[in-house]
TrEMBL record:
Signal peptide: none annotated. It comes from Peterkaempfera bronchialis. Gene3D superfamilies: Jelly Rolls. The keyword Iron applies. Residues 1-23 are annotated as: Disordered. Pfam families: CDO_I. This is Cysteine dioxygenase. Belongs to the cysteine dioxygenase family. GO terms for molecular function: ferrous iron binding; oxidoreductase activity, acting on single donors with incorporation of molecular oxygen, incorporation of two atoms of oxygen.
Length: 182
């Protein structure tokens, strides 16, 4: 029988085995959103969302996203990843559901009253969210572009898209990274 191999001691500065926590993700999003040189890398399109990938902290995945007036994501989750995002310029609104939903095993779900939340996120504001977060994000402005920074850990394995009719949420589509990678 081979001798047991001792576990390697953790290296200084090495991320914890399960990666960066919500505060670290949110801090990265805030710092990047306040960095004009990094934001300037993003091309803007007057009619379409644009995005570029960044390397996030501790093996996470990050994006800068440009939102023309009226752009929105539709309802979605993040495939079990946690994350954070911060508005860098302009203003975004987030609609979210204040209960943790199972990430799989259902096709339609009827929400109870009182679980809808809305956040106004002007430049410099953001939020972190856990692995079961379901939301949609919109640039409700009719004139102003918005730019935001998003970070996810683990890197998004997939994204589930939902339709919403009143209180009923219905799974419509599961997207893999090949659908959004540039
Ligand atoms: Fe999202």
């Amino acid at each position: 029988m081979p001798p047991a191999t001792p576990d390697a001691p953790p290296r200084p500065g090495h991320p914890a085995p399960d990666g960066p926590g919500l505060s670290e993700l949110l801090d990265f999003a805030h710092r990047t959103a306040a960095d004009p040189d990094t934001l300037a890398l993003l091309p803007l399109d007057p009619a379409e969302r644009t995005w570029i990938a960044l390397e996030g902290p501790g093996g996470s995945e990050a994006w800068i996203i440009g939102w023309p007036p009226g752009a929105e994501t539709g309802w979605h989750d993040h495939g079990g990843s946690r994350g954070a995002f911060v508005t860098a310029t302009g203003r975004l609104a987030e609609q979210s559901i204040a209960v943790e939903l199972p990430t799989e095993g259902w096709r339609t779900l009827e929400l109870v009253d009182g679980v809808d939340r809305e956040r106004d996120l002007p430049a410099g504001r953001g939020r972190a969210f856990g692995p079961r977060h379901v939301h949609q994000v919109v640039n409700a402005s009719q004139e102003e572009h918005a730019v935001s920074v998003h970070v996810y850990h683990p890197p998004l394995p997939l994204l589930r898209r939902y339709s919403r009719h009143g209180r009923v949420l219905r799974l419509e589509l599961v997207e893999g990274p090949e659908e959004w990678a540039p």
